[in-house]
């Protein structure tokens, strides 16, 4: 949200907005506006100064955000994203940040592919064969090796379930976690689940302790579009009136009844960490969207520890 501001100014703006934590981007698709790990790691004093800017404003670094496609069949793309991610692991280790938010990735359909292939159906048979190849030859082997590096650095990856990615739903995330181990965790963002027809509350209960970071972002489905075209939508996010669904600021896709249950269920499964606002609402400016999200969440979040059950 504050990508147009220098890091120190972004931290100051976050404090003035009433935020207690911040999630800077470190590479991949989200860029490095506030944190270039390759540059910071050249100088220990630079790392300390970067951390001090956040600490001075009372901000926790909730996670480092490095959303890329490290499984991209174009080696130039995958190498760049892998380099960013590995530098982010090193920076996380140096700063004590425990989680790196990111994507599971999306490879091609086979070893000769030039572009990623997000497979969503099993037939004709070549689709089923391709998805098996992706998981057996690319996804699991890659993350098995990357998990070793994360384990050594005492950090985890918090994968965001996202369309166009092999980890786009709860089942896929848990399958990868089972195959690779507990270095595979979840950055839970309900906005991508609503339009796919999933119930975020059920997903939270299934994921449980795998959730190590949470995004507060909403989305709104337009039934009048879905009824004749379905939910998969490649129209640009700016074509709001024509799209099947659109990202919204929290409270503008689903009301307080949902978000009350959302934070309650997170507490139920043991999550007591940061709720990180992600603003991508095309109907609001960044400043207005952030202000409305902060105001809305203040009435929803649970702040105090429960303590003993005095009434039973």
CATH-assigned fold name = TIM Barrel
Alpha-beta classification? alpha/beta
Q: Please, what is the oligomeric state?
A: single chain
CATH C-level class: Alpha Beta
* Rounded radius of gyration (Å): 20 Å
The low-confidence runs, each spanning 5 or more residues with pLDDT under 50, are none
The mean pLDDT is: 97
As a percent range, the share of helical residues equals: 40-55%
Terminal residue distance: 45 Å
Q: Can you count the beta strands?
A: 11
Instruction: Determine the CATH superfamily.
Output: Divalent-metal-dependent TIM barrel enzymes
Q: How would a textbook summarize the main sheet? A: 7 strands, parallel
Strand order of the largest sheet: 2-4-5-6-7-8-11
Order of helices and strands: HEEHHEEHEHEHEHHEEHEHEH
Question: So, CATH architecture?
Answer: Alpha-Beta Barrel
Total helical segments: 11
Q: How would you describe this protein?
A:
The chain has 312 residues and is an alpha/beta fold. The protein has a single domain (7-298), classed as Alpha-Beta Barrel (TIM Barrel), CATH 3.20.20.150. Helices cover 43% and strands 13% of the residues. The chain is built from eleven helices and eleven strands. The protein has helices at 7-17, 37-40, 44-56, 75-95, 125-153, 170-180, 191-194, 200-207, 223-229, 256-268, 286-298; strands spanning 21-22, 25-28, 60-61, 64-67, 99-102, 156-159, 184-188, 211-216, 218-221, 245-248, 275-277. The strands form three sheets. Strands 2-4-5-6-7-8-11 form a seven-stranded parallel sheet. A two-stranded parallel sheet has the order 1-3. A two-stranded antiparallel sheet has the order 9-10. Strand 5 (99-102), helix 5 and strand 6 form a beta-alpha-beta unit. Helix 8 (200-207) runs parallel beside helix 10. The termini are far apart. The model has no long low-confidence stretch (mean pLDDT 97).
């Amino acid at each position: 949200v504050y990508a147009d501001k220098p890091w120190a100014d972004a931290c100051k703006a976050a404090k003035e907005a009433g935020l207690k934590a911040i999630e800077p981007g470190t590479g991949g698709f989200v860029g490095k506006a506030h944190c270039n790990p390759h540059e910071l790691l050249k100088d220990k004093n630079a790392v300390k100064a970067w951390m001090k800017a956040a600490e001075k404003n009372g901000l926790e670094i909730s996670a480092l955000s490095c959303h890329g496609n490290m499984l991209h069949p174009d080696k130039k793309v995958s190498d760049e994203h892998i380099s960013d991610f590995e530098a982010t692991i090193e920076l996380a280790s140096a700063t004590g940040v425990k989680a790196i938010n990111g994507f599971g990735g999306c490879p091609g359909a086979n070893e000769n592919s030039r572009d990623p292939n997000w497979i969503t159906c099993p037939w004709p048979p070549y689709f089923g064969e391709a998805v098996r190849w992706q998981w057996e030859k690319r996804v699991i082997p890659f993350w098995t090796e990357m998990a070793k590096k994360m384990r050594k650095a005492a950090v985890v990856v918090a994968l965001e379930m996202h369309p166009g990615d092999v980890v786009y739903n709860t089942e896929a995330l848990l399958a990868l976690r089972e195959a690779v181990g507990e270095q595979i965790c979840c950055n839970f963002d309900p906005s991508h689940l609503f339009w796919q027809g999933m119930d975020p509350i059920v997903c939270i209960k299934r994921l449980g302790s795998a959730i190590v970071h949470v995004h507060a972002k909403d989305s709104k489905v337009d039934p009048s579009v879905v009824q004749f075209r379905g939910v998969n939508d490649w129209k640009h996010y700016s074509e709001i009136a024509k799209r099947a669904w659109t990202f919204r600021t929290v409270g503008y896709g689903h009301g307080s009844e949902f978000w009350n249950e959302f934070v309650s269920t997170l507490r139920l499964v043991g999550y007591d960490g940061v709720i990180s606002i992600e603003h991508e609402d095309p109907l609001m400016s960044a400043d207005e969207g952030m202000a409305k999200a902060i105001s809305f969440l203040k009435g929803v979040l649970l702040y105090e520890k429960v303590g003993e059950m005095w009434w039973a």
